[in-house]
Amino acid sequence: MSAHSRGSAIQSLGDSHIMSTKTIVMAEDNPQMRRLYTDFLNMNGFNVMASVNGIEALSLLHRVQPRLILLDIMMPDPNGIETCRRARSFVDPKIPIVFLSSLDSVDYVKDGLEAGGDDYILKTSPLGTILERVQFWTSPNARSKSEGRREKAIEGVRATAEFQELSTSIREPEVMSDKRADDLSEFLERAIAATSLDFGGTPEQRLYFIGYVAGVVDFDLGSNGDLQPQFLKYMRGSLLSGDVMTAAQVEEAMNTLGKLTTSEPVKNGWARGRRDKSAADLEGQGFVPNGLADLRSVA
Questions:
Q1: CA atoms of 129 and 236, how far apart (whole Å)
Q2: What's the order of all strands across the beta sheet hosting 47-51?
Q3: Among residues 51, 111, 208, 242, which is most buried (max CB within 10 A)?
Q4: DSSP character for 172?
Q5: Where are the domains of the chain?
């Protein structure tokens, strides 16, 4: 059903080398996040060449000279930090490498910078913030404008790491549970399977779908309607994994979610999503959620 399925970015490049202020090589193994960042940055005037892992990214970098390299960290071997280290052995040193990761541990930041990275952006950052950082690093002379930035950042995270080792209170980073995300995606896949193949084609149906997903996530997290950061994180991921809305539609919904909650289709979907998820948790994996079948009756 997806209108945005993507393959590898490595396609018939020949031996040509590309150097463009708009070209970005990105490595991201999560298909939903890869699609989100690719669509978002392309919409903002960039040419994103997306790779599904570090090996593909390195192969691509042997033939392409982008203005910026974006790397996820948690990828199959090699991970993003090792990919950065290998890339630094042959890419133009003027090309910035920026990590885009959900991991906020100071150790990951330190390891990434010491491997040759120039910056570290959390995936939980607003898309506007991510865009600003990408625009900075793709601007002319970004390296000269940030002279010494990486060295100072390394010194800073080293100091923080030493402080944490001496501290008696250790704060564990809040990282999105992959199992919970997988469980939510699996639930939605079963719910969507109960609908007609063309559902979600109207604004009203998409509003109901937004509400249904919100209700499912709300019940699973026990948020009680509070649009907290954790709720928004899982909400965005679940909408994208549902593959009913485009990345642009998802971001528009997330940016206006507070207003959308007063819409009748959203409220109706929210209530049904909570009810279906509650019943599923009680009845186990054999339960088939049917709430999205109501979309057939939504104009």
A1: 16
A2: 47-51, 23-27, 68-71, 97-101, 119-122
A3: 208
A4: P
A5: 23-166, 178-297
Tell me the three state secondary structure of residue 98: strand
Coil, helix or strand for 100?
strand
Which residue, among 258, 255, 218, 254, has the nearest Cα to 239 in the 3D structure?
254
- What are the pLDDT digits (tens) for 139-185? 876 665 555 555 655 555 555 555 444 443 333 333 445 677 777 87
pLDDT digits (tens, 9 = 90+) for 76-107: 889 999 999 999 999 998 899 999 887 766 67
How far is 60 from 69, CA to CA, in rounded Å?
Answer: 11
Report how far residue 41's alpha carbon sits from residue 250's, in angstroms, rounded to the nearest whole number.
15
How far does CA 232 lie from the centroid of its chain?
12
Helix (H), strand (E) counts: the chain? 13, 5
Please name the residues in contact with 44: beta carbons below 8 A apart, sequence gap of 6 or more.
Answer: 131
Q: Closest Cα to residue 287, out of 212, 225, 194, 162?
A: 194
Task: Say how far apart CA 142 and CA 36 lie, in whole Å.
Answer: 25
Are 26 and 74 in contact, with CB atoms under 8 Å apart? no
Which H or E element spans position 271? helix 264-283
CATH architecture of 23-166: 3-Layer(aba) Sandwich (3.40)
- If 0-12 CB within 10 Å is exposed, 13-18 middle and 19+ buried, where does residue 41 land? buried
- The C-alpha atoms of residue 280 and residue 285 are separated, in whole angstroms, by 7
Give SS3 for 81: helix
What are the residue ranges of helices labelled H in 127-245?
127-137, 142-145, 149-166, 178-193, 203-221, 229-242
Is a pLDDT exceeding 70 seen at residue 54? Answer: yes
SS3 139: coil
Q: What's the whole-number average pLDDT of the chain?
A: 76
Per-residue DSSP letter, 250: H
